[in-house]
Description:
By secondary structure, the protein is an alpha+beta fold. It is about 25% helix and about 30% strand. Strand 2 and strand 3 form a beta hairpin.
Amino acid sequence: MRIRPEAPGDEAAIGALTAAAFAGHPHSDGSEPQIIERLRRLGKLTLSLVAEDDGQIVGHVAFSPVTLSGGEGGWYGVGPISVAPDRQKSGIGSALMREGLAKLEAHGASGCALVGEPAYYNRFGFIARPELTTTGVEPEYFLVLPLHGEVPSGMVRFHPAFFGDAA
Length: 167
């Protein structure tokens, strides 16, 4: 398996993989493939990595900029992250996350935020921080990972593409 940046022509495979990975998930409304497509179309897909095995895309992770109410820059949202259902729990998601975080850190990113299960994302250093919040999410599921500098305080807003908006 190798991890590489998304390339032209990967879009349909990423969409199908993401749909399959989130099918039936209790916290999914099925919009994950559309989120990625909207971010891509709007030029807000900062980092898009795929895991490829024998020419097949078996995993994907997206990173996009987030807005902080205090105006701090360099923060990114993680997600969606997807692994083919028959390959889940085999380390592909972890490899994608580690590679993506390393690339962002190398480029001077200040930090990352996501909505997810603490039991999974704590292993990468993500934790709930009371000084950073977002709307519509229970505080224990909004997790952040500072990469450079101090953790700011305030409200984090994911790109409108996460909510069906094209702006």
